[in-house]
Amino acid sequence: MTITLQSPPSSALSSSSSFSLQGRNLTLLSTLHFNSRRSFPLIRSSSSSIDAGLITELDSVSSFSEIVPDTVIFDDFERFPPTAATVSSSLLLGICSLPDTIFRNAVDMALADSSCCKLENSELRLSCFSNKALVNVGGDLAKLVPGRVSTEVDARLAYDTHGIIRKVHDLLRLYNEIDVPPERLLFKIPSTWQGIEATRLLESEGIQTHLTFVYSFAQAAAAAQAGASVIQIFVGRLRDWARNHSGDPEIEAALKRGEDPGLALVTKAYNYIHKYGHKSKLMAAAVRNKQDLFSLVGVDYIIAPLKVLQSLKESVTAPDEKYSFVRRLSPQSASMYDFSDEELTKWDQLSLASAMGPASVELLAAGLDGYVTQAKRVEELFAKIWPPPNV
Q1: Among 176, 175, 168, which residue's Cα sits nearest to residue 136?
Q2: Which residues are tagged catalytic?
Q3: Keywords on this record (predicted)?
Q4: Rounded-to-integer distance, Cα 342 and Cα 218, Å
Q5: Could you report the per-residue pLDDT of 197-248, keeping only the tens digit for each?
Q6: Residue 184 in contact with residue 135, Cβ under 8 Å?
Q7: Alpha-carbon torsion 82, 107, 187, 303, what sign?
Q8: 353-374: per-residue pLDDT in tens?
Q9: Long-range contacts of range 249-256, CB-CB < 8 Å, 24 or more positions apart?
Q10: Whole-angstrom Cα distance, residue 336 to residue 266?
């Protein structure tokens, strides 16, 4: 797989693997632009607002960060145009629950694949079916969105570096067989140490990755050192953990400074990436309200709920009201941020494990458990419905 890491082609990915499918309506969660020139349509105010010389809050914050929707419906291109998608076990379950969706044929064809059907080992056969289904659906999505399709890597491999790499190579080979070019693809990998190490090796091959379940500075810094294309931090999930738990040094330090722990982690990770010249892009997800978004203005990508985007879009102000937003995060401010010697370490497995507090350990484990459960459910379902009728 050959990908240009500098000035990547117009592309995108989604930060969530959940979809709502009814008939021909496909709901994508969290699309993300990768083209800094923004050749795809962005969320903007209505033409009437523009004609009246008004500037929306959405326009203002979009001048500093890529603001992308947490829910985009294909039938609503004009308001919130989708640019990319994630294909995952969760999506496969949704497709199988609604047989009339436009993607059901992609799943049925995967279950009829001769190379999978001839495998005598049932475990290998079901894994083969799952891989084919992910890629077939990903191929269909690639025809519907202009940006990238992010493919979730089996979370059961989260602690197996070489297993992750083999899985990515298998998926790439299958995508190649259906003529989906590598520049349209990214691979979503959990931020265990083994996942981070797999990311380092894959990125060295030119395969772009998206590290998810980042809940600590140590994970974010190690991911940046590994050269991850995208690093995803869930702001709201850290806040939720802090409301119900205690004893995490990183979170306690943020609270002592009067800061929200999720916003503080994004700020610190952004400053680290930009101060030390890492190529990674930072994505803030699980943003819950407008204040969260305003506090993150300047970060590379912000995934925002539809209700927040709608509120931003409807809030307009005349230019003469001197209405403006302050950019909270910038390469200039990052250059002045001070890091301790401990934070500037060359991260390895031992130092990462020592630095991850209870919040990141628990939230990472919870995320992995959810992904593993979904993958198992897909295989159990495929075992029941294979072979599919009328194929």
Answers
A1: 175
A2: 188
A3: Cytoplasm, Pentose shunt, Schiff base
A4: 10
A5: 999 999 999 999 999 999 999 999 999 999 999 999 999 999 999 999 999 9
A6: no
A7: positive
A8: 999 999 999 999 999 999 999 9
A9: 249/357, 250/216, 250/217, 250/357, 250/359, 250/360, 251/357, 251/359
A10: 16
